[in-house]
Amino acid sequence: MILKDYIIIGGGISGLSAIKAIREEDKDCSVLWITDEDRLPYKRTQINKNIASGFEKDAFALIDHDWLVNNHIELLYDHVQGILTDSSEVSFAHRGHLKYKKLIVAIGNKPKGLGDCIVPEENKFDVYTARHVENIVRSGKKAQRYLVVGAGVEGVETASQLKKMGKDVVLVDRNKQVLKRYLNKKYSDFVIKSTKESGIELLLGVKEINFEEVGEGRYALVTEVGKMEFDVVIAATGYEPNISIAKEAGIACNRGILVNECLQTSSPDIYAAGDVAEHPDGIITGLWHAAEKQGYVAGKNAMGRNEVLTLKPFRMKTEVFGEFYFAVKPKGCEDRVVTEVKGPIERDIYIKDGKVCALLMKNDGDRAKIYQQALMEQWDLDKFHQEIPL
Ligand SMILES: Cc1cc2nc3c(=O)[nH]c(=O)nc-3n(C[C@H](O)[C@H](O)[C@H](O)COP(=O)(O)OP(=O)(O)OC[C@H]3O[C@@H](n4cnc5c(N)ncnc54)[C@H](O)[C@@H]3O)c2cc1C
């Protein structure tokens, strides 16, 4: 049986970072990278922000074929079906087994979807892979009325893109806030205002979402406020760590694959990184830069280092309806908040023990990197004002 020194499952940013870390340590060991998508690993964050313009297959590719060749990385397009921890093997549906010395599981999330739902596949899309988004773009040739379920960041971004395409859009969520994971009520209200002004019909606080066939091949959303017909429904209902193969392998999982602070799983030769990993404090990060950092630490530690992951306050940023938002959401244990407004810019700076620990900001996107630095380095308010004056 073929033996690889390192096998990385998952063609996302955490997988790529792990490979870069491995190659920093050793230029010659054998590295096999496995993705079950249909293209070179790409910048996932870009796909739903570019629905209106559409995109070429490898438009957001993170690396190219030369990079793989120059770094001696074998990229295999296949789906790993199982992990056998006793014999250190991964298994495939049609390709048999491969043996690893160390394994990095970087398989991200899976979309929650709409559950049991009468709407057929051709009228229903997830928004997780580039292929999903290409299907949404293609649907635009025929469809006019779109229903987006879920007003988290991916849902609002997707709805805003569909509106840009001139579509009729209904955005529905069971919460009364939008982007609830990242924004407080005040900033959520800013987004709600611009969503409504864009012409999107926004239905919030909808407790039950049901679908009904209203004619041959025609469907409607049925809620307590009435019925709304649509051509296409997009499920932006959130994501959950993709733990099934790890769980079946007997690797300890909770909501995500449980890792220690070095990103090692309960199986000592196996590391997990990115959206699939659940950290000792129960955190699952769900953000690009956090996944990038974790992949790097997992790669280093798989190489025998002993790096401890520190989870810095990674930010969410998004631009919707011409407005920019940046958020490291306060946890509720801050000592005070300083609100500052100048022109279109507004920012709420949260302070704990004299240091900036959280920030909600609107329309100061050009300085997003410095805001991120302020949070990472926990500046005090004086330094914050000196470096990022309003
Ligand atoms: C539409 C969208 C927009 C986003 N926008 C932002 C944003 O603006 N800012 C931000 O910070 N974050 C954003 N995120 C989140 C961010 O993309 C993720 O945090 C990040 O991609 C996680 O990287 P990862 O490597 O952990 O996993 P993923 O990017 O999920 O990659 C995992 C890969 O593993 C593959 N895989 C899974 N199972 C198997 C298997 N059994 N065999 C082989 N391959 C497998 C998957 O197909 C996938 O290619 C967005 C996410 C989505 C879906």
TrEMBL record:
GO molecular function annotation: oxidoreductase activity
Entry keyword Zinc-finger: no
Location of the FAD/NAD(P)-binding domain: 4-295
Keyword annotations of the record: FAD, Flavoprotein
Highest taxon above the source species: Bacteria
InterPro entries the record matches: FAD-bd_OxRdtase, FAD/NAD-bd_sf, FAD/NAD-binding_dom
Needed co-factor(s): FAD
PANTHER family (UniProt xref): NITRITE REDUCTASE [NAD(P)H], PYRIDINE NUCLEOTIDE-DISULFIDE OXIDOREDUCTASE DOMAIN-CONTAINING
Name of the protein in question: FAD-dependent oxidoreductase
Protein source organism: Plebeiibacterium marinum
